[in-house]
Amino acid sequence: MQTFLEIGLKSELLESIEKLGFEKPTPIQAKAIPFILSSNSDLIAMAQTGTGKTAAFGLPVINKMDKNIKGIQTIILCPTRELCLQITNDLKVFAQNSSINIVPVYGGTPIYQQITAIKKDCDIIVGTPGRVNDLIKRKKMDLSSINYLILDEADEMLKMGFKDEMDAILDQTPTEKQTLLFSATIPPDINRMAGKYMNTPQTITVSKQNLTNTDITHNYCVTEPSTSYDALKRIADITPDIYSIVFCRTRHETKKIADSLMGDGYNADALHGDLSQAQRDYVMGRFRNHNLQILVATDVAARGLDVDNLTHVIHYHLPDDIENYIHRSGRTGRAGNKGISFAILAPAEQRRIPMLEKQSGQKFVHSPIPSGTDVFSKRLYNYLDKITETTPTDFDYNKIKAEVENHFKDLSREEIIEKFVTFNFNKLFNEYENSKDLNSSRKAKNGKAKGNREGKRQVVGRNFTRYSLNIGSSNDLRPDVLISLINRQTPSKKIDIGKIDIQRKVCFFEADKQHEKQLVNGFKKARFKGLPLLLETARRSTDLNRYKSSKGRARNKNKKQPAKIY
C-alpha cells in the first residue's frame, strides 16, 4: 500500500498529516485520494462510518483548490449538524498550513452569524441540506461557480427525508463540476440521484470494515424488559474503566436512562435532539476529553461523533437493520484498540441473532449478566489493585505524614483498613448483597414472547395517543428516521414518543396525548421522499382496517401539491 508521501499530496498537507500521526492511508483513502487527484470525473465511493472518509475526499480536494480564486469553490453536504462540525474540524486541521477557509452551516444556531462568515471569506462550505437550502433561498449563498460537490453519507440524508432539499441544492450547482458521493449503501434513491446529477461516475468500494474488524467482540445478554436498566448498570459496574456510548431508540428514553444513571452516581450524560448547539458542544467536549464515561444517545444525535478509544458500544435496543448495527458497533475497536459491542436483548429478540450472524459474518457470543457478587468482587479487587500499584510522583507525603498518623493514632491497622473499605464500598455492597439474577431463561416461541412486541420497553407514567402513518419499511423507514421526521414537523415541541411499530407499508407509533393537535397539524402538508403523508389517530384493534380504508383518501389528497417542509 502506498504511503501518503507516495500518493502525491502537497508538502503543506503532508506536514498536517505528519502532525496528526497518520502513517498509511486507510483502504478508502488509498483508493479515493489518487483517483480524485488525477481525475475530474465523478465518483461514487462505498465505505462505512469510521473508515476515514473525511480525509479521503478532504485531502485531495484541498490539494486541488486554487487559492487565487475568490468565493465558494467546494460545497460538502452531510446529514446532521454534529457530522457537519466534525467534518469542518477535520478539514481545518488538514488545511492548517494553507489559506483556505472553511465555514460550517447548520440549523439550531443563528443564521445571520453564518451569513456573515460566508460573506467575509469562504472557500469551502460544509452544511446540512435544510440550512444550505435556506441560505440559497435567501440569496445568501451562490453555488453557481463551485468546482467540487461532495455528498457525505448520502444514503442517510435521503433516509432522513432530505430528498427535496438535496434536489433543490443540486439544481443550483453548475454542470461542469466534480461530484463525489460517499455512502455506506447504494439504495435506489442514490442511483436515481447519480443518474440525474452525475456524469458517468466511477465507483470504488471498500470491504465492510466494521463487520470484519477482528478487534470488535460482539456480545449479547437476555433479560426481561423491566430489568434492562439494571442489566446496563451491571455491565458498567463490572467494567470500572468503561468508556462507552449507549444507544437508545428515542430521545425520551435517552433522557430517562441518562438521568437515571446520573442519579445513581454514574459519570454519564445524554445526547439528543432537544439540546441546543451550545449544550451539545458541552456534552461532546466532556465526552471527548474523558470527563464522561458513558454517553447515552440516539443514532441520529451521535452522527459525526468519532472517538478512537471506546471500550464498549452498548445497544439498549437492537437497531432494526444491520446497517445501523454496523454504524454503531464500528465506533469501538478502532486504531488498534480492542472493543466490545454489547446488546441488551428482550427474550423475543433472541430470534434475531442467527440473522445478524449471517448478515454480518460475525459470531455473537451470549454473555450472561454478571451476578451482584461478581460485580462487587471485581470492583473491590480492581480498586485495591490500583491502590497497591500507585506510585506517588508529584506528591510529597512526608509533608502531611505526621498529621495523618496523628489523626489515626487511636485506630489499629485492621480498623483503618475496615473503615477505608467500608467508606468506599458500602453503597455498592448494599446494592448487590441480595441482588437477583437478571438473566432471562425465557425463549422466544415461533418468533413471539410474552410482553411487548419485539421486546420494546414500555414508557411508564405517560398518557399516549396511537397514530398511523402511510409509510413503512418499503419506504426505508426506520425508528430513528421516523423520530427525526416527527421532530422536523413539530420543531417547537418536545414530544415524548412511546412504542414504534413499522410494517411494510404503514407504521404506528405512540406520542404524548397532550400534543395530538400539534402533531396532526404538523403533518398536514408533510412529504417524505416526495410522498404526501397521511397521519391519523389509530386504535389497536382496527389499525389495519383503518389503513386500508384510508388509502383511497390518501390518493385523493395526493392530487394536491403540498408545501415543502424545511
Structure notes:
This protein has 4 domains: 4-207, P-loop containing nucleotide triphosphate hydrolases (Rossmann fold, 3-Layer(aba) Sandwich), CATH 3.40.50; 210-369, P-loop containing nucleotide triphosphate hydrolases (Rossmann fold); 373-432, no CATH class; 459-558, RRM (RNA recognition motif) domain (Alpha-Beta Plaits, 2-Layer Sandwich). Helices cover 41% and strands 16% of the residues. The chain is built from 22 helices and 20 strands. The model is unreliable at 446-461 and 540-566 (pLDDT under 50). The longest helix is centred in the C-terminal third of the chain and has 20 residues, at 413-432. A hairpin with a 2-residue loop joins strand 18 (527-528) and strand 19 (531-532). The strands form 4 sheets. Strands 3-4-2-5-6-1-7 form a 7-stranded parallel β-sheet, with helices on both faces. Strands 10-11-9-12-13-8-14 form a 7-stranded parallel β-sheet, sandwiched between helices. The protein has a 4-stranded antiparallel β-sheet with strand order 16-17-15-20, with helices on one face. 41% of the residues are buried. The chain is globular and about 85 Å long. The protein starts with a helix and ends in an 8-residue tail after the last helix. Helix 3 runs parallel beside helix 4 (53-64) and helix 4 packs across helix 5 (81-94). The chain is of the alpha/beta class and 566 residues long.
